[in-house]
Write a structure and sequence with these properties.
18% strand, 18 helices, five-stranded mixed β-sheet, 45% helix, globular, eight-stranded mixed β-sheet
Length: 631
């Protein structure tokens, strides 16, 4: 079937595509595939653009890649001077356009680092952002907990200052022995340098030597009969063991390296990274995502993106070679012979990162790669088992819910929730669940137009009316069940609008919360009555998920609306600032905080004179503050 579609597609290639295919050069570069709307849906790199791009419009593809191919309506390409330039450009284009069919390392997957700030009185902190600020960064750590635990240990060992701004007097950290208190006491010359060097040594794997030094001090304190100090040192040694000695495998060469492995199944890929520091495996990180191209190419795309934002590089990187590739994925993408070989990829990464990239073929290093690949395979299998179990439970819950409320099969559920604070900035939100799963592209937000004050019933009437007038007008899918947040009043309001105004007879139920704001019971009917579903049943669990999701969505929307309203009201209250200038200010500065921090000169590009700029700053700072620009 996929071959027929591919064939049909080749027969109907547009003249513009045929012309572009004929003009493709025999050079390296990147190509950008577009859909009918002109949106970039896939970015790739090639040693020879002509052969690689043409392969998408000829030959047959498997079902997974065919999904990509059938959406391609146009393409662009960029010629590069070398294969390495193509590798880097591909990474940057993926980050810029977020193509649907590319592997994309999400922003929320950035890894935490431990940072020693470059200040007169340095601090130790955990951060996910790395700047060129002359600070020392150590990491990345696989998760925030690992980084925080290590920082907590270092805080006990080395009393760097904790406060972001130096206070007037000593704080609790000083009394706990975790701050050197530069706010009140003069720090001896070289003390900071000594602590920074020891922290750097510790984080670079030298914790064993520091542990030995602490052990020596502990024995000395015990000999001096200073048992309280000996106990403190013993506790610090135990903490080091707890945080740093979670090793599962050790190499004799004491080299920092990242070991990669991956597995693929059912259109999904799992990448496993083993972190080796000072020859010891300290942590691992797992990432799962759908992929659509060649398995190895997409794996390398992940690796490239991972290191593009990772300044704390190891000394070595281990990558799987051709032997580790999944046999069942060999036909997942067009094979033209113009893809980079594994060794070429390794050489490109070496040139770019200036780090040794190895593909071990034997011995303990080969076993490390096998361990990473095995762990990736196990994680992928576990994902599918969980999906199958959850799907089975969800299907049963949806079927049973229909039986409980007497509506038959329920496929589509639309749930509503209102949000306001004492009637201010009222909003409502709707979420959609299809076959027990959230369909986020169908979610909708509503700003309340006709209701004044905190009237939950009238708010529900307005939103139900607006939603289902549109459903009727645009012939959108009708829900099998409408869920409202509340009891008898909200249910009656929704039924009244649906039946008496719109002539729709859709089952409506309400979810009533208890004193702890948790889903307590289901109500339904006219007049509404309690449906006796067990609190520990899968049906009730499904209802809880729906109510929590719609409440989360509504609260998030309300916070955004209220924040914008507060910003707008603060600026609108300033004489000389209308809607046009307010929008220009926010667009130029980005936030109210940035406007408040601006100098008078910063307003001139907007055509705002010095007098009005001073008035704006004075109004935002208030009578008790002085703007920096007036200092």
């Amino acid at each position: 079937m996929s071959e027929q579609r591919a064939g049909g597609r080749r027969d109907h290639l547009s003249d513009s595509i045929k012309s572009k295919l004929a003009l493709l050069p025999d050079k390296p570069g990147c190509y950008l595939m577009k859909n009918a709307e002109g949106t970039i849906i896939y970015v790739g790199k090639a040693k020879v653009l002509k052969n690689r791009v043409r392969s998408y419009f000829s030959g047959s593809h498997d079902g997974k890649t065919q999904r990509l191919v059938t959406e391609i309506s146009d393409f662009e390409y960029i010629v590069t001077a070398s294969n390495m330039e193509a590798l880097i450009l591909e990474c940057n284009l993926i980050k810029q356009y977020h193509p649907r069919y590319n592997v994309l390392l999400k922003d929320d997957k950035t890894f935490p680092y431990i940072k020693i700030t470059q200040e007169a009185h340095p601090r130790l902190e955990v951060t996910r952002k790395v700047y060129k600020d002359k600070a020392k960064y150590f990491g990345p750590y696989p998760n925030a907990f690992a980084a925080q635990q290590t920082k907590k240990l270092l805080d006990r060992l080395y009393p760097l200052r904790k406060c972001k701004t130096i206070p007037d007097r000593v704080c609790l950290y000083y009394h706990l022995g975790q701050c050197i208190a530069p706010c009140e006491y003069e720090v001896p010359a070289g003390e900071y340098e000594r602590m920074v060097q020891e922290i750097s040594k510790f984080l670079n794997g030298g914790h064993v030597a520091i542990k030995e030094e602490l052990t020596r001090k502990m024995h000395q304190a015990a000999e001096d009969l200073n048992f309280e100090r000996a106990k403190e040192l013993r506790d610090q040694i135990v903490s080091i063991d707890a945080v740093m000695e979670k090793q599962t495998i050790t190499m004799t060469d004491a080299v920092d390296r990242d070991v990669f492995g991956y597995a693929v199944d059912k259109g999904w890929m799992c990448v496993q990274i083993l972190y080796m520091r000072q020859g010891k495996m300290i942590e691992r990180h797992v990432t799962l995502f759908p992929y659509y191209g060649d398995a190895y190419e997409d794996f390398i795309s992940f690796v490239t993106q991972y290191y593009s934002d990772n300044p704390a590089l190891p000394k070595e990187i281990f990558l799987p070679s051709a032997e580790e590739k999944e046999e069942d994925e060999s036909a997942s993408a067009p094979d033209t012979g113009e893809q980079h070989t594994e060794r070429e990829v390794a050489e490109l990464l070496e040139s770019w990162l200036r780090v040794k990239v190895h593909q071990p073929q034997r011995g303990q290093k080969k076993k490390l790669l096998g361990m990473a690949a095995d762990n990736a395979r196990v994680a992928l299998e576990e994902k599918f088992r969980l999906i199958e179990r959850d799907e089975e439970r969800t299907v049963k819950a949806v079927e049973s819910l229909g039986e409980w409320i007497g509506t038959g099969t329920i496929r589509r559920i639309e749930a509503f929730d209102n949000s306001n604070i004492q009637g201010s900035d009222p909003v409502s939100a709707m979420v959609v669940f299809v076959d027990g799963k959230p369909d986020r592209k169908e979610y909708r937000k509503y700003k309340i137009r006709t209701v004044q004050g905190p009237d939950d019933y009238e708010t529900m009437r307005e939103v139900i009316r607006r939603r289902y007038e549109r459903v009727l007008k645009e012939q959108l899918p009708m829900p099998d069940l409408v869920v409202v947040d509340g009891g008898k009043g909200q249910i009656s309001a929704a039924i009244d609008v649906l039946e008496n105004e719109l002539g729709l007879y859709i089952p409506v139920c309400g979810l009533v919360k208890d004193a702890k704001h948790k889903t307590a019971q289901l109500m339904m009917g006219d007049p509404p009555d309690i449906v006796p579903i067990r609190r520990d049943s899968q049906e009730f669990y499904l209802l809880q998920r729906i109510q929590e999701e719609v409440h989360r969505f509504a609260i998030t929307f309300h916070r955004e609306t209220r924040a914008k309203s507060m910003v707008a009201s603060q600026l609108d209250s300033i004489p000389g600032i209308g809607e046009k200038r307010r929008k220009a200010l926010l667009k130029h500065f980005g936030s109210l905080k940035k406007i408040k921090e601006a100098a008078v000169d910063d307003f001139r590009p907007l055509g705002i004179g010095d007098k009005l700029a001073r008035d704006i700053l004075a109004a935002l700072h208030g009578p008790g503050e002085t703007a920096d620009s007036d200092a």
